[in-house]
Amino acid sequence: MKIVRTIGGLRAEPRDGSVGLVPTMGAFHEGHLALFRAARAENDLVVASLFINPAQFGANEDLARYPRDEERDARVAEQAGVDILFTPEPSELYPPGFQTWVEVEELGSRLEGEHRPGHFRGVATICLKLFNIVRPDRAYFGQKDAQQVAVVKRMVRDLDHEVRIRVVPTVRDADGLALSSRNAYLSPAERELALTLPRALATKDPAQARARLNGLDIDYVEVADFEPRVLAAAVRVGKTRLIDNVVLDKEKA
């Protein structure tokens, strides 16, 4: 596996066949590995980006303490079959004078967008930049971030980008908690409390789910008309904010 830190260096890498891109912010876990495996199965070349995108963090969010361990992540990515790990500095992707942003207006303004203003502007912008830099045939995202998937799909359609978006099912621990890099913030007692979230969503009913989340700090519990429709929720357990969703529509045959 090669580690590449510049746009020019990545563009200079030889391409032979199809390219799969897995955009990440590092702190790799089994959810990331599922994305890497999906990309490896479908493409000749697999590129993973490792970039903690400052543009998608709010002023009072956890940018400074977000988990960082590039050496470990590089080992994990290599073992999972990633060919190129793209690890640029923020100044490489947001050089001085940067002022062009992508905004998916309606989809990006509700649910997560309402509680994290500007978040999806940062997500859409960095994803489009990565698509333009890597020029992948396919890009891989997790169903756990259902609204992010919806935003990226809408952007790709609206801007006539040729990349195909692949969505990998949510990966959960044995106790049912959706895997997330932010789970590392949870104390043992908080993790036990966090299990209320997947259990509530398993009802697939907003009212029942909200009732089961009673006692937690709830940002939202709503049915979201994405593709597919989901019951989505965001809660705070201590200082940690967790999101999750369950698919409501039956899979098409």
Describe the model.
With 253 residues, this protein is α/β, with parallel strands linked by helices. The chain has helices spanning 7-11, 30-42, 70-79, 90-93, 112-115, 119-134, 146-158, 188-194, 196-201, 206-212, and strands at 2-4, 19-24, 45-50, 84-86, 138-142, 164-168, 217-224, 230-237, 240-247. The strands form 2 sheets. A 6-stranded parallel beta sheet has the order 1-4-3-2-5-6, with helices on both faces. It has a 3-stranded antiparallel beta sheet with strand order 7-8-9. It starts with a strand and ends in a 6-residue tail after the last strand. The model has no long low-confidence stretch (mean pLDDT 97).
Any descriptors?
six-stranded parallel sheet; globular; 21% strand; three-stranded antiparallel sheet; alpha/beta; 253 residues
What's the tally of helices?
10
Helix content: 25-40%
Shape label: globular
Assembly annotation: single chain
Biggest β-sheet, characterized? 6 strands, parallel
Mean pLDDT, as a whole number? 97
Distance between the termini: 37 Å
Radius of gyration: 18 Å
Poorly predicted ranges (pLDDT <50, ≥5 residues)? none
Helix and strand element order: EHEHEHEHHHEHEHHHEEE
Percentage of residues in DSSP E strands: 15-25%
Kindly state the number of beta strands: 9
Question: TL;DR?
Answer:
With 253 residues, the chain is of the alpha/beta class. The protein has helices spanning 7-11, 30-42, 70-79, 90-93, 112-115, 119-134, 146-158, 188-194, 196-201, 206-212; strands at residues 2-4, 19-24, 45-50, 84-86, 138-142, 164-168, 217-224, 230-237, 240-247.
